Amino acid sequence: MKKTKAFLAVLFIAVLTIFIVSGLPDTVLSLINENIEKIKFLKTDNPYLVEIIFFTTYVVATSISLPVALILGLLSGMIFDAVTAIILVSFASAIGATFAFLISRYLFRDYVEKKFYDQYQKINTGFIENSGYYLFALRMCMVFPYFMVNLVSGLTTIRTSTYYIVSQIGMFPMTIIIISLGGNIAELISTDVGIGVELIFLLTLLGLLPLISRYLLKNWLS
Hints:
By secondary structure, the protein is an all-alpha fold.
């Protein structure tokens, strides 16, 4: 086992080194920038069309429990202005999460309970003891991936309206951070100005917020 881990570590370092030396990072960044610019041009000509397509894509992807929330959140920050991105992502993520919740509850209940049995036991106990407060804690702390929370929560007795409202409020702080991070990354790619203080702060906040929330809410719920 130790030899296998050592081999995988060496292989990872070798691949990473080749990736950097070959100049692929610049190519990838250039490709991303070109496509982002094309989307921005399309948005200029058809602003509502791009917003509708993005919103619908986010809702559908979340509804079928694809773990793409982070990618789409960053992408929204690259394409839209901050206010538009926050509105789109906040509502799309909450609506999509609620659809996934309902699909799990009424269509795939037995499968989800079998697939995520251990997680279901933990989350269900939390709901029984703390109801919506526990859901808020899960959204803030990200103890479990969002898509898993959506699926497993469908097996509990929490009301749909409560699930939607608490989910939207609980995911809002992280939504703002991820969108701001996406905007900074887009600026970094397009201007090549280097990593700034704001980007470092957002990355730090992205890592610290779940940890701080988990600590505070764990003590509060106990």
